[in-house]
């Protein structure tokens, strides 16, 4: 799951309801019933959302303030669970983004957290990546001075190429020098994804003031040339939202493929889908997070190997679309990029209607 949340609450029934809603929205959940333990997690681990029970309002306010001063969670969405006794105006002044009144029902939590979920996704898209080719050295898990190449960079995240496979979700200590900038940058980050080619996406965790200033100066003086959907507040991933998956082999030259990539635009979506290995009877229940006429990105914790031929079944209120494709990018525990293989005009027309409906819906939401 791409998004993460921390639930700070000791009420079992409330935790059950919130966990159910968040998991349905494909937001992973970590539960914490103790404020001190929660504060410790917030100083070391970045989250996309914090859901905070304000039964003990003073402790809740203190936690919210500390989250806002933490480099890991200063931009995190905070949802407060409140009742008539809470001073809601003061909570907003302390950095709360949403309030959810108790008792928490499935219907009420669903409506509020769906709105919060959309803001989480937008927050993840705040920062834009700048392509970069620079050397870096990393220390992690008892290993020192591991060389890596920086591929792109933003205020809150970095993508690198590394010959060694990193432990999952490990903390990494970086040092590197930006082209044309005299100061050395030293910071720590967390590995959020990595693929079979050695690319790793990192979200920054601890950035000293001097390094943050050097990053800010350098980024301000370099133009952004493309957006990275997965840079959203930190972690980077291959830019599948802006660059559709490759057409099927044999469909054209490299220059034709490049031109095709420029004219097809991806649309953010949230479409439930059944994914079948070609000819297989058992579907994998997944979610499409973007789509175009050329391909889509499938969010799944169990992505299939590159070059696997698959079929995707999407059902909406108004249509049912079945389309074949090939896995072109695979990111373990994260998802996979798929290029479509359309063989008939009817398939193209059906897919066009689906893409048009998602484009229209995205236009309404934006």
Notes on the structure:
The protein is α+β, with helices and mostly antiparallel strands and 366 residues long. The protein has three domains: 3-124, Response regulator (Rossmann fold), CATH 3.40.50.2300; 130-231, Beta Barrel (Thrombin, subunit H), CATH 2.40.10.220; 254-365, predicted glycosyltransferase like domains (Thrombin, subunit H, Beta Barrel), CATH 2.40.10. It is built from eight helices and 17 strands. The strands form three sheets. The chain has a six-stranded antiparallel β-barrel. A six-stranded antiparallel beta barrel has the order 12-13-14-17-16-15. Helix 1 (12-24) crosses helix 5 and helix 2 packs parallel to helix 3 (57-68). Residues 225-263 have low confidence and may be disordered.
Please tell me the overall pLDDT.
78
**Could you give me the name of the CATH homologous superfamily of the largest domain?**
Response regulator
> How many structural units, i.e. domains?
3
Write down the CATH topology of the largest domain: Rossmann fold
How much is the radius of gyration in Å? 22 Å
Counted beta strands: 17
Given the C-alpha coordinates, what overall shape results?
A: globular
> What is the CATH class designation of the largest domain?
Alpha Beta
Main β-sheet, in a few words?
A: 6 strands, antiparallel, barrel
Report, as a whole number of angstroms, the end-to-end distance.
24 Å
Beta fraction: 35-45%
Number of distinct helices: 8
What's the CATH architecture of the largest domain? Answer: 3-Layer(aba) Sandwich
Strand order of the largest sheet: 6-7-8-11-10-9
Structural class: alpha+beta
Low-confidence stretches: 225-263
Order of helices and strands: EHEHEHEHEHEEEEEEHHEEEEEEH
């Amino acid at each position: 799951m791409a998004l993460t949340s921390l639930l700070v609450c000791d009420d079992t029934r409330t935790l059950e309801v919130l966990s159910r809603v968040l998991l349905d929205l494909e937001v992973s959940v970590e539960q914490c019933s103790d404020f001190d333990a929660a504060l410790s997690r917030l100083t070391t681990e970045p989250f996309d959302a914090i859901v905070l029970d304000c039964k003990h309002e003073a402790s809740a306010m203190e936690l919210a303030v500390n989250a806002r001063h933490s480099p890991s969670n200063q931009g995190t969405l905070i949802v407060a669970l409140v009742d008539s006794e809470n001073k809601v105006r003061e909570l907003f002044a302390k950095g709360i983004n949403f309030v959810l009144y108790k008792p928490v029902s499935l219907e009420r939590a669903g409506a509020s957290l769906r709105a919060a979920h959309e803001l989480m996704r937008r927050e993840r898209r705040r920062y834009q990546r700048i392509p970069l080719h620079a050397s870096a050295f990393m220390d992690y898990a008892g290993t020192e001075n591991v060389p890596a190449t920086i591929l792109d960079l933003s205020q809150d995240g970095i993508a690198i190429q590394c010959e060694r496979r990193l432990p999952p979700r490990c903390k990494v200590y970086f040092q590197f020098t930006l082209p044309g900038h005299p100061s050395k940058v030293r910071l720590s980050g967390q590995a959020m994804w990595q693929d079979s080619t050695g690319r790793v996406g990192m979200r920054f965790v601890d950035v000293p003031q001097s390094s943050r200033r050097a990053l800010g100066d350098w980024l301000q003086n370099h133009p952004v040339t493309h957006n990275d959907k997965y840079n959203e507040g930190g972690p980077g991933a291959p830019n599948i939202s802006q660059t559709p998956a490759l057409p099927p082999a044999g469909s054209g030259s490299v220059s034709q493929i490049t031109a095709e990539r420029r004219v097809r635009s991806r649309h953010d979506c949230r479409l439930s889908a059944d994914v079948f290995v070609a000819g297989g009877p058992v579907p994998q229940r997944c979610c499409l997070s973007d789509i175009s006429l050329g391909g889509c990105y499938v969010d799944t914790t169990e992505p299939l190997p590159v070059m696997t031929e698959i079929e995707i079944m999407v059902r909406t209120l108004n249509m049912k679309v079945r389309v074949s494709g090939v896995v072109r990018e695979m990111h373990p525990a994260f998802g996979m990029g798929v290029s479509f293989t359309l063989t008939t005009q009817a398939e193209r027309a059906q897919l066009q209607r689906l893409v048009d409906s998602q484009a229209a819906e995205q236009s309404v939401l934006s």
